[in-house]
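pipeline stage [seq->struct] | target=Cytochrome P450 | organism=Streptomyces liliiviolaceus | residues=421
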Amino acid sequence: MSDTTGSTSSKTPPPGCPAHGSAVQLGGLEYQQTPSQLYRTMRREHGAVAPVFLDGDIPAWLVLGYPEVSYVTSHDELFARDSRRWNQWPNIPADWPLMPFVGYQPSVLFTEGPEHQRRAGVITQALEGVDQFELARECQSIAESLIASFGGSGQTELMSTYAHALPARAVLWMCGMPQGSADTEQLVDDLRISLDAGEGDDPVAAYMRVGERIMQLVKEKRDRPGPDVTSRMLQDAAGLSDEEIVQDLISVIAAAQQPTANWICNTLRLLLTDERFAVNVSGGRVSVGDALNEVLWLDTPTQNFIGRWAVRDTQLGGRLIREGDCLVLGLAAANTDPQIWPESHVGAENSSHLSFSNGEHRCPYPAPLLADVMARTAVETLLERLPDLVLGVDPSELTWRPSIWMRGLNSLPVQFTPAVH
């Protein structure tokens, strides 16, 4: 994202859009480190629906209110998912940084109506075939293998060595990729690069390799089906083409990997820095569950989601939304809406957060349950194997990634007594 601050922009508003004369630029240091404060300011100044500028001063609306996000996601006839409706396409350059998020693709993410129901139904049926106890055992095996790779050193950086790798390997196992093979490891790395590119990485090339390997997997499973998600999608009566299955598998894998990795790491950060969890965290399964749920409320991995596009002129939160306007779903802001949390008290025991979105385009059931199995197993196994795990730096030194979309740490260095094999 750009280096601009979260201050009010004085840019010339787009024609016919006076609200965007006071629009907030999404991005900057304030957004990275304390987005909740920026949401509070925006809510105070603009209400539940705020005018914002995306990269390159492209106007959009950020939906901050819990009732408003729930309304948008429940009314597909007013706020649709096909980005080709956007009225800003004439102003969008081909190399726009957010193109991977909004450029139309023939995947389940951008479908609407009966076609979306058909595509999402195939994914749901395929995921329902995953045995959650078997997944937990596989995640524990993956966790123990990863811990063994760094356990003797007494220190590691958990984002790269553990939190990202575990859900990537687990979801590829669910899809029928052979564990431990060189091309599976290459795919794990390419997934990381395509979703969260670092310095010197080529995310476009990595994404192309992911597509090629998933297409190869689909062809393999068409010839030799197995008890896996890919095979079940191929065998579904809806009869999706290989190309449709590749697109939808990539969506499933991406949705499972990056958010779950940040969910794991944000939970570990909470457990290692908040004294409420310090007393009984070692083997304390109850507190791990509380921490996992609290993170979904207060540090949800998917902060904002782009987006929905207005089907026609309509009203939302006292704003006139024009046909073709883009709405960014402020999931993190909605989760901390003071209307639902008086006195700013967020109850971790409540699970009605919007972290998996809402409505027809929410994460397909049972994806949130499978993500919970992965995250819970990852956290519990790490704490059981390394019971004296402590943060390797002062908590104030932890920094968040410069993304308005994902909420995740740059790194999570830890120290522990070296494990003896």
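stage status: PASS
auto-comment: Residues 1-16 have pLDDT under 50 and may be disordered. The chain is about 45% helix and 10% strand.
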